[in-house]
Amino acid sequence: MTEQIKVFLNEDEMPRQWYNIQADLPEPMPPPLGKDGNPIGPDDLAPVFPMNLIEQEVSTERWIDIPDEVLQILFQWRPSPLYRARRLEQALDTPARIYYKNEGVSPPGSHKPNTAIAQAYYNREAGIKRLTTETGAGQWGSALAMSCQLMGIDCKVYMVRVSFDQKPFRKMMMRTWGAECVASPSDQTEIGRKVLAETPDTPGSLGIAISEAIEDAVTSENTRYSLGSVLNHVMMHQTIIGLEAKKQLEKIGVEPDVVIGCAGGGSNFAGLAFPFVNDKINGKDLRVLAVEPAACPTLTRAPYAYDSGDVAMMTPLLPMHSLGHTFVPPPIHAGGLRYHGMAPLVSHVLQLGLIEAAAIHQVECYESAVLWARTEGFIPAPETAHATAAMVREARQAREEGKEKVILLNWSGHGLMDLVAYEKYFDGELSDHDLPEEVLARSLASMDGLPVPAGV
Amino acid sequence: MTEQIKVFLNEDEMPRQWYNIQADLPEPMPPPLGKDGNPIGPDDLAPVFPMNLIEQEVSTERWIDIPDEVLQILFQWRPSPLYRARRLEQALDTPARIYYKNEGVSPPGSHKPNTAIAQAYYNREAGIKRLTTETGAGQWGSALAMSCQLMGIDCKVYMVRVSFDQKPFRKMMMRTWGAECVASPSDQTEIGRKVLAETPDTPGSLGIAISEAIEDAVTSENTRYSLGSVLNHVMMHQTIIGLEAKKQLEKIGVEPDVVIGCAGGGSNFAGLAFPFVNDKINGKDLRVLAVEPAACPTLTRAPYAYDSGDVAMMTPLLPMHSLGHTFVPPPIHAGGLRYHGMAPLVSHVLQLGLIEAAAIHQVECYESAVLWARTEGFIPAPETAHATAAMVREARQAREEGKEKVILLNWSGHGLMDLVAYEKYFDGELSDHDLPEEVLARSLASMDGLPVPAGV
């Protein structure tokens, strides 16, 4: 064997605690606000989330124990392998060394179960019998479906209608794992019926689906709502990725110069990045890069503001980079990145200058994804392709500069359910979607009159 | 943590040699025969396969080194994890302990690349620039597409037309890995044109596709043919599964009482089973069970005979259990198990009483697959569901008998590309397919007049 290309961790080396970056922020985050503009407290969230997760949401403890039962299930596919992408390096003729965490090894094929398992567990521990959620393309819905099944509680998923009709496979996956999945807007909630009455032919949106799932949760017995990204506790559950990666890199004596993740709501990015952002807070010299679609440029073109997480403004106001809660993203294939806002924690560390952001168009993403599949074997998800595209840029720059830098990226999921997008790429049917200034301005106007975070 | 449920191997523990069961057979296999009824020699196979693989095909060396470059690529997903299926055991309330090898971790999602990588390597080493093959549902075609891409040679796949039209995703996977994939029968071979002229609306068959791929190989420059199952060297390349499993079980001090794999052409079954069959040859007390579809009962209802591997009788005559080379299997969803023959080595060890066989109907298979997905998380491929169904039978029997037996099975691939079959199962649209005696008799008649293996 010429060289080790994969680093395992044994079970006894698996992290036993999540990392909570709220303990280490140089400045605390602004609080979420209620509709009256006043900070909300734990009790305000109680109809929507169980108290044990609300406590995690506001905790400033640095380390929080992962329950044994959650670890037992995570161990089904974790620790996820860390790879060196040797053949890719050769194909790019770069002096950079490229490492990646493969989160595609979970049963639904992405990082999403890292928090889905935890959320299903805490809800069940709190006596909750049923979770509701929304899903776009279905990565999150399928992860929660599996997790609820394994934890023995019920699951109902409101799936954006256009995906429900056009992408049936994730829906079948949810059914296989015992969840109920309906197209949103549905006739099963008040908000759904209202939308259907006004626009019977609507393709639906994540914003509408969130509203339906929350309404269902607060009006049904023993039911709570579960969100797959954006919230603080979700970011924290995902840090197991970065904590494993640090241990794996230590094993081979490697330190990254650049850490890369794609960012939609922010969870897979934060999961890999936050333990490294902690290094940066402690004085280490490295870059941390969040990559988003140029068609949905939350971090690179949207203001840091208070905005709602859904169209119907049922969520509290969160301090975050937001394109405006009425923003309708162009139809790019990376469904998991089509969200108007960004996790408050990710937004905050960008504000603090601890991370940087880049926006990339989708054709460049697929170019890099095909190169990846043809050298590393694994086929990236459209979302993950944004991280691979940024990695290719970094590796090419390293070649031009003759620098031997170490790149670490989060390979957040496989694209086996997204092959139609590859087919379109090969047929030349994919195009890039610019976001015209006037469209952005209209969407941003939906935030007019909302409070502004202090210091902005 | 209550108990370890997954056993890793480190890179330095990965097997460095394949196991060749031909070295240990109590009786040698009958030789393959040419059309004249005489044994064929290596030179007869040279237009179809490269000499280095032909040498492996006839070798009786017990251990054959795995080339470093093959190991490097296999290490991308190997050693595959060995799991204990604790939640499944609980759901079945069985005293049996259930262990499984997860071969779904490879990029195309099955065990197939274990031999595809090796075959692409040996062909390239022999100066071959291009491989042809056939594929049914696409598991094998996609594995060879990836392997040829990684080894830097071209790949052309003849895909059975009905699958090409109805199951487009594996075709897209092949394209992503740079292979050319055409529907068979095609207008690109003489045999294809002949079939199209006679039956323009034919759905195609594996037999026709094999004939086209071989014709292409023997008539094109620097081109050879590659087969994903049946042949001796294919079985040998797959033994890395069983060799890893033995090391993993040794680590935790466990010995299996029953070893289970599904069997179509025989390769995933042989891959897990043959190292354990060796134990049995050496006097150890264990059962080894091959599971096939009741709709295509090669091992349980077909004679041991000399038959051809394809409809057009372009292959040599192989000593094997065969339903007759004209057999057209019912439309069960486990496309990988719809083959009229069985690997000569698997057939031979059944003849010698070293293994046993069972045939199971598909609805029972999906029942077990859904139970599996809902306890272990991973969704089994329809082929793999035959192994899980047999496992459930064994576990239930253990409960009835109060026996603490250890079951080991080959979880040969995931079903993420096969969710339509699950949907049909849930909708009650799947039915079992019996094989009427008269249909079987007609098909067996196609072997009339062919030689019979000695001693039969």
Can you offer a commentary on this structure?
The structure is a homodimer of 456-residue chains. A 7-stranded mixed beta sheet of chain A has the order 1-4-5-15-10-11-14, sandwiched between helices. The first copy, chain A, has a 4-stranded parallel beta sheet with strand order 8-7-6-9, sandwiched between helices. In chain A, β10, α13 and β11 (287-293) form a beta-alpha-beta unit. Chain A has helices spanning 42-45, 51-58, 68-74, 86-92, 113-125, 139-151, 161-166, 168-176, 190-198, 206-219, 232-238, 240-251, 267-281, 298-301, 344-351, 362-376, 384-401, 419-426, 437-444, and strands at 6-7, 17-19, 63-65, 82-84, 97-102, 130-135, 154-160, 180-184, 223-225, 258-262, 287-293, 304-308, 317-321, 356-360, 406-411. The first copy, chain A, starts with 5 loop residues before the first strand and ends in a 12-residue tail after the last helix. Chain A is built from 19 helices and 15 strands. Chain A has a domain at 6-13 and 66-109 and 233-444: Rossmann fold. With 456 residues, chain A is of the alpha/beta class. The first copy, chain A, is globular, with a radius of gyration of 21 Å. In chain A, α3 runs antiparallel to α5 (113-125) and α5 crosses α6 (139-151). Chain A is 41% helix and 16% strand.
